[in-house]
UniProtKB/TrEMBL annotation:
GO CC terms in record: mitochondrion
Catalytic activity: tRNA(Arg) + L-arginine + ATP = L-arginyl-tRNA(Arg) + AMP + diphosphate
Gene: RARS2
Name assigned to this protein: Probable arginine--tRNA ligase, mitochondrial
Catalytic class of the enzyme: ligase
Amino acid sequence: MHMACYFRRSIASKLSRALGRSEDAFISALCAIPVSKKQQSPDFRLSVNTLLRNGILPTNGNLQAQTEALASQLKQDSVVEEIFAGRGVIHFRVSRNLLVQKVLEQLCQERHKFGVKSELFDGLKKGTTVVEFSSPNIAKKFHAGHLRSTIIGNFIANLKESLGNNVIRVNYLGDWGMQFGLLGAGFQLFGCQEKLKNNPLQHLFDVYVQVNKEAENNEVIGQAAREFFRQLEQQEHQAVLLWKQFREITVEEYQQVYKRLGVHFDIYSGESFHQQQAQEVVQQLQRQGLLKTTEKGTGVVDLSSAGDMSSYSTVLRSDGTSLYITRDLAAAIDRKERYNFDEMIYVTDKSQGIHFQQLFQILLAMGHSWAERCQHVPFGLVQGMKTRLGEVVFLEDVLDEARGRMLRNMSQSKTTKEMVYPEDTAEKVGISALIVQDFKGPLGSDYKFDWDRILQAQGDTGVFLQYTHARLCSLIHRYGDGEEGAFDPSLLLDQRSISILQHLLRYDEVLYQSVQDLQPKHLVNFLMTLSHLTASAHRELPVKGSPQAVAQARLRLFSGVCTVLANGMKILGITPVKKM
């Protein structure tokens, strides 16, 4: 049992016996309170209003009298030390000795499972989760615009996995469409296998730019592009061979970028996988009477509630070829058959909101009730992402820039430790700075990118997060983790230690909140506050020069914080560094 739940369970048990209701009814009304920087905070809040809303208390009673009655019950619990009853809410502190003992005991026992074993998660269905994210277009260098989908999807997959779900990470590549007709025709005219071997994606990019330019004034090239794509759709050997070469080269190149980001996929899928199935979906829509033909000859599905075509989705071109949404329908149905998932999450920018709304509507209309468990997680745009050379296009440039700037900052800092591979550390810290900057606010919001701000060593940055973790690792490496021998909780009753332990009480609630709305900001804010509290404690609670028992107690506290920081960072997709 998680330590916050130890206190919740003890209090809920007391109230349950007194009022003859289940313990779970009271647990949902209890929550840990955020730590205040200005004054000592209570540990928990019991919402009487929540109990009224859930029918646990009679709604016709006097609110103040009900609050006071509950407060008097709580006073009898040995866990509770102080109570502050207001109108409809009760704040209370638990025994300080018990707080220290239970939190650090739990950290020692659970380590990497700390927080995720909480009873808060008992009601959540554990099953198979498919997360589709990143999804760049093949035959192009990895555009910086795909960074958000990649890191957000990775966070969601990590979070679900940490809570015991079987997660399948899917990269649904843009590997089909008329642009490949243009690229194929262009390569036949301007391509060079030697250049393709030496610098594959740059060469394909150059070919694509050149053929586009030529096609503007030369209809023959347009015809050649249509002909190449026709050959591709007809599965003609030479065209498919060239397309496969483009796809394999791209995946190999992308895997290098993903490796730098610490991201992996279980499946590299793509639109091309679902060509045949897309036609089967169209036939099924026809059989079910869902497919209508417009005057222009396009195939559409009526999505209007009145059946008057005021809202519809086009699933077929007039020439009978499938569209992006048709292939998405086929992909969703195929994944359900293949993986029998319990939920599927798509991570793309917010401009695709209507597309996914229509996708889920059509699936439901086809009788696929599981579409209700499909979800689109939208995100906003990053504005002003540039390198020193100007406007950025490719993600590799951004990662190189982050590493280079961080390396310069580290070389100029007086606190930087000697390292065998400083570039590797600079890369990890630079990427963590990018991730934290991205995750601080609501995902749906646009934000302005600022190199100087994101790489600051102080403030709410990924650099500060890594620095705090590395500092704790250095302390533990030098003096040990304090877990051997007897431990006296009374040696950690100072306000700095108590504030950290109070904050740790909230960790399971923060994870619970994150899994409810799939927003990383809750976890980022929690880890930032923990880092600031730890920085203050590190200054005021020295290990060196303190009596042995005091030093051991403080080391145990700092070791626990280090574990939680590392666990939380890994869920965010950040690789913690031990030295910087």
